């Protein structure tokens, strides 16, 4: 048995894991487009993990979710570049999320969770190789020591539903304070200040080390950002870095921001003046077809909730449109419930938030669907026509199309906003409801200024 343990240890030293530890930034040239795209792809993974954790998914579900998210978002056309994309995207987001304590508080546990899930899918040999890279000098317990505590280890295994340790099982003896979550969950045998950690549990030990390293690295990166990088890159990378996190961790628009409500009689005017293209398109298709598929109903319905359309008015609005095609009775039976559900009046009574730009961009509309991001999903011809209809023309259209071609969809929406409102939007558009809110602020400010001018003119004439 001792020789088998030694053999496995020698194999571990020869195994190279595909899971990086992100100890130092890579000496790689990165195109500006890849800088953003890689970061956004990784953000989709982290956001998915965050959403899954917030919904209380079980460990097995989270591991599968993380695996699916990684496979869907972190691929690269060139297989040889997958690892580079992994490393680059991590360091870009490290730069993005180092800048404030709140950002670090979100990024640190999400990256640690991602590392944990990926580590668990590594082979046993690769896991031991990673432990060696962390300089974790824990040795597998000897055969004689294993036999002396085997009964205790079996008792713990039974209590937590684990397989009973066999003769060739590997356990590590570590200071108990280094595996607090295992101790708290009574998932390890503790003796004389040491915890006996099964090879299947070492993820807890390694994840603790990973988190500690990343936490320190974020502080150091913040110092570099503050002292040199931000000023040096103020015209190139800094705007992108500062926009990336807000595009992902934007404000909660489950309730109206700054505007108490909108009325049904004003909605057509608001569509023309203050709806972003994604919502304007859905609204027009609803009026045209008197129906939207589920994805469109969710995207538009939650947006309308966020801009202040009350529940009763929302039901009246959708019923007026849908009943022309499906009838009032069918609407009441099949559709009214979901509207009340979105407003937190049915089911779990969750106060659902309107979709963010990132969620909309990452959606995949099918045939007959009208949701999603027009900047991503429209053909060039259709997008140009839609922009012209919004009053965007000339050079402004070309600027928008340039951003679209480089897959900077939120920047394209920001340029559209600026062209429509003849006003800058330094923070960038990160959420459809932000677009509406900022639009209304600008329009109300203009109306207030016009009213002042008219009042002064009237005084002078009198």
3D structure, described in words:
By secondary structure, this protein is mainly alpha-helical. Helices cover about 65% and strands about 5% of the residues. The chain has 22 helices and 3 strands. The protein has a 3-stranded antiparallel sheet with strand order 1-3-2, covered by helices on one side. α1 crosses α6 and α4 packs across α10. The radius of gyration is 28 Å and the shape is globular. The N terminus is likely disordered.
Stretches where pLDDT is under 50 for at least 5 consecutive residues are 1-15
Q: Mean of residue pLDDT?
A: 84
| CA distance, first residue to last residue | 105 Å
Shape: globular
User: Which percent range fits the helix content?
Assistant: 55-70%
| Strand content bin | under 5%
Number of E-type strands: 3
Biggest sheet: strand arrangement: 1-3-2
Briefly summarize what is shown.
The protein is mainly α and 462 residues long. The chain has helices spanning 2-14, 32-54, 59-73, 82-97, 101-120, 124-133, 143-159, 180-184, 202-232, 237-246, 267-274, 277-289, 294-306, 311-326, 328-334, 336-342, 357-361, 374-377, 380-389, 395-405, 409-421, 432-461; strands at residues 171-175, 189-191, 194-198.
What are the main properties of this structure?
462 residues; mainly alpha; three-stranded antiparallel sheet; disordered N terminus
Structural topology:
Layout: H1 2-14, H2 32-54, H3 59-73, H4 82-97, H5 101-120, H6 124-133, H7 143-159, E1 171-175, H8 180-184, E2 189-191, E3 194-198, H9 202-232, H10 237-246, H11 267-274, H12 277-289, H13 294-306, H14 311-326, H15 328-334, H16 336-342, H17 357-361, H18 374-377, H19 380-389, H20 395-405, H21 409-421, H22 432-461
Antiparallel strand pairs: 1-3, 2-3
